[in-house]
Amino acid sequence: xxxxxxxxxxxxxxxxxxxxxxxxxxxxxxxxxxxxxxxxxxxxxxxxxxxxxxxxxxxxxxxxxxxxxxxxxxxxxxxxxxxxxxxxxxxxxxxxxxxxxxxxxxxxxxxxxxxxxxxxxxxxxxxxxxxxxxxxxxxxxxxxxxxxxxxxxxxxxxxxxxxxxxxxxxxxxxxxxxxxxxxxxxxxxxxxxxxxxxxxxxxxxxxxxxxxxxxxxxxxxxxxxxxxxxxxxxxxxxxxxxxxxxxxxxxxxxxxxxxxxxxxxxxxxxxxxxxxxxxxxxxxxxxxxxxxxxxxxxxxxxxxxxxxxxxxxxxxxxxxxxxxxxxxxxxxxxxxxxxxxxxxxxxxxxxxxxxxxxxxxxxxxxxxxxxxxxxxxxxxxxxxxxxxxxxxxxxxxxxxxxxxxxxxxxxxxxxxxxxxxxxxxxxxxxxxxxxxxxxxxxxxxxxxxxxxxxxxxxxxxxxxxxxxxxxxxx
Length: 474
Prior knowledge:
Blueprint: H1 3-25, H2 29-61, H3 66-93, E1 98-100, E2 106-108, H4 112-141, H5 146-169, H6 173-203, H7 208-233, H8 241-290, H9 293-309, H10 313-330, E3 338-339, H11 340-358, E4 364-370, E5 378-379, H12 385-395, E6 402-411, E7 414-422, H13 440-450, E8 455-461, E9 465-473
Parallel strand pairs: 4-6
Antiparallel strand pairs: 1-2, 3-5, 6-7, 7-9, 8-9
């Protein structure tokens, strides 16, 4: 729902509430006439609010038609002035306080400056309200820090509180003074508990009685200025000073704790959802990176050349290993955890296929020391293969001396993985030159999410060698 529509609904609800409140307080004919004047006050203010916020501001000021906006605002000012003057006439008519003019007509005794001052006050409050709205929009575009969040909430309280205050002024001055004293105090108690006391309680592990004692003490100190202001305006409020403070805190402290717990649960759900989405995104990204056309075409060309040179046994073996790898990628890679033994099978199949490509190169050495894993050890899929892929991608040259050494073993619930390879820089014309290692950033992200504080990754690189050491606590 758009903000303008929400504003209109809230303002209409407040306007209706004020009318009901005025009507319920009218009694005899004199007070009935007074109630009519108060309803007229509220109607003029409500109409001015709608005209300015829903028509003048969006149609002229927000699109920078300043001259037309000023003209329509002046017209609105005169209409409000005329409306308030009429309200005062209705209000004072029953007093029968008349003056005679020279032509013998009777007119009510009006306080000449009252309607003019009221019209100016209404327009000033509307401009302040619109300025607060724009400031809130600006803060929403800035970085969402604690200071900006408190500033936005304070502006919302100020804007909404000002609108209701103006409405209440048309009904009853004491009620408006009560609103002016209580609303800032209620928000202060809310902000102190939500943003300071409750987080401090969890951080330092305070007991609930100690938190309650601190919260009550601070709330009493914060209530003193509001209470003194209320007592100075409403004499009868002296007897209700402590009663009012107790009632507010009996409502606010449980309510703030409820809101804080709801926010905490919502944040926890969002964090979990973000982790799940991040893991899913990482898995999908990794699957895309695995379907490497360069790798697949090399393997197919190798299989084709092998089939021409000798019997079909090696070709069949290579195709079988490639099929096992593809089945692994399509099925087991979607699981959260798999047996370490299955991950090792995938590694061995991949290395065997790459050895078909490097078998004819006498300057290439590939050493593998991959121990069998226990059947009870599980690991997240596809965490180790990116390092092996990068070793073959950047560490093998069919024209220069190359080497790769892979070591993998399990000990006391930990998986130890090491890979050491030579580095051969690709020529400028090679499109793979500007691509980083396949899935390395992806693996780092998955390790941080799946094994927080349970892994150790060390990567070292020189001009000629690349070394990776990874330890995972399964």
